[in-house]
Amino acid sequence: MEDENEDPKNIPIYELDADTKNLVEVALNCIISLSEAQLEPDSKENLLIIADEIALRFGIPKMEIEEQLHGDEVIYRPRGGVFPDPESDVE
To answer: What is the pLDDT of residues 70-87, one digit of tens each?
Structure first.
């Protein structure tokens, strides 16, 4: 028997209230950011697949990661940010 979720038309899309959607977006941002820290390419790809599937199920657009330099450190964050830095942290 074929899995009903194999056909994209059969994937259920769930509606969320605004607060819950924001919370899911933060969790997705954390997963995507964590994927950049993986040593194994397969581990990175698996986390991105999970994030994409969750985003699809909740109607959240796919998120992109960008590099930001903070002094000598490279920080990976979702485009647009999740947790903005206070002005005093930026030198």
So the answer is: 788 776 666 555 555 555
